[in-house]
Amino acid sequence: MILNALSITMIFIGALSALLAIWGGISSLILYRKWKRTATPEEKTSLEDRSYLVLLIMVIVLLIRLINWPLFYVTLQSFISDIEGAMCIFGVTQVKVGLTRFLEFLKPTNFFLIGGWLMLHVLDRATKTSPLMRKKLLLLSIISLFVLIDSMGDIFLMIGIAPESLVSCCTTVTDILNRPTRTTPESIFGPEYAQSLQVLFFITHLALMGFIGVTLKFRIFRRLILGLLSLFAVLNAFVFLLSQIEVFAPRMMHLPFHHCLYCLWQYVPDSIVMFLLFILGTFSVGWGFTTELFGRQGEAADLLPGYLRKIYWFAFFFLSAFLIMLIIHLLVD
Amino acid sequence: MKQIFHDEISPTNDENLPHPPSPLMGEGEGGGEYRLISPHLNPPPQGGRRFSGDIFFVFMWILFLPLILVMLVFGCKKSDAPGRCDYDGVKIEPIYAVYFTLQEGTEKKFCSIVCASLSFPELKSRIKEVIVVDERSGTKINASQALFVESEVVTVPHNKNRIHVFGKREDAEKHLKRFNGRWIENPFF
After folding, report:
1. What is the pLDDT of residues A60-82, one digit of tens each?
2. Please, which residues 33-62 of chain B have a Cβ atom closer than 8 Å to chain A?
3. Are residue B100 and residue B37 in the same domain, yes or no?
4. Is residue B86 included in any domain, yes or no?
5. How confident is the model at residue B52, as a pLDDT?
6. Residue B82 covered by a domain
7. B43 interaction partners in chain A (CB closer than 8 Å)
8. Is the ipTM value over 0.90, yes or no?
9. Is residue B126 a contact partner of residue B135, using CB atoms and an 8 Å limit?
10. Quick one: B71 and B112 in the same domain?
């Protein structure tokens, strides 16, 4: 175990959120089951009071888990000097490959689920009768399970990473000729795949922004349209990842043969802001869809269009800010 | 049944009495029975204000633009540190360095034989001379005159480089015997 301020913080947050996730998950499941059955006004009041306490505490836990995603990478970054052979976060991830990879997939999933739930919570809070309360409680109990797994994973990882471990770093994996990020686009676009990938990324990204703009302009907040928009955002994210690894990261780092995104964050720190903007923009598109999916009920349905417009304006802003940062980088570099 | 908040009903403000439609009731609703509920349960929605996306977008830009610009100013600075490997950006240990002198007169430097040989195929047509360092004496020699040995000893841990460079045969043989090595050909041939 490598002991520093960040690893201790990660373990503390992990332990605290694991305990509260167990309590919050069970409580919200019980409240969900009781919500409709309650007969007397006294019972109803007691149930409401308890549900607001559960929601209040769980909102704080979920907000902490949102911050936990970047904190996870900051902590891994702090371990680099203690791991022999690690020159970036990639090297640290090689100490416990399976667990780290699992957490690297789980954390964005949790971020999306928590963000979506918070959107729904904000919408429900704006109503007078809380028509989404049952859905919120059920979703909260599911998310609590994810939070619990994530928190336990953090604790095991922090304890499991031994100092002085010998690993090989990104050069031996991300730069080999038969890496999937190269062979996949090369099989489609041919040897000059990098140029095509770059053009494809700009087309899909601008198209996504255009579709969001049209949705906002004409206020088309139909479930099918928003679902398709989310799927397109996922496709754009896939093209983004490929183009970042193969084209943009080497250019921004001034290392034309190196394709490691962790090294990019290390050598070009403002790329972290770029990635954050892209993630928030893409997730906002998904959050718009999930809010429409679960929020169209009772009184909340009347407020929904206004909230969807806010969410999609956020998405439009984040995606355009990311694009401007990327273009400036490419022009200056 | 319609709901209004008791905050809105005051003896001095008759306009707030349930004249349909109330601003809190939503469009198209009017008349019917009213019920008072606590405003503390959920705060009343901002029904009177309409969200303007354009203003919001401009506001977000005003808020974030300085931050983005500051980030870009620092981020776009050319980060070609003198002792940095031209392949993966790692700090170079001079004893294991490899240098490519290109036709146009510029030089590419690498932290190890591994990084240099990964870059070699791409730069081959532009390379005029490859310079390596004798790890025994630290002197720079032409790669064509150097001896290469692969052994159990790792020189650069992050890419597990096990290839060693020697200027003299006796140094290379000594290392070869001591660390279970084998002769390898010049990787830059």
Report:
1. 999 999 999 999 999 999 999 99
2. 37, 41-46, 51, 53, 56-57, 60-61
3. no
4. no
5. 57
6. no
7. 125-126
8. no
9. no
10. no
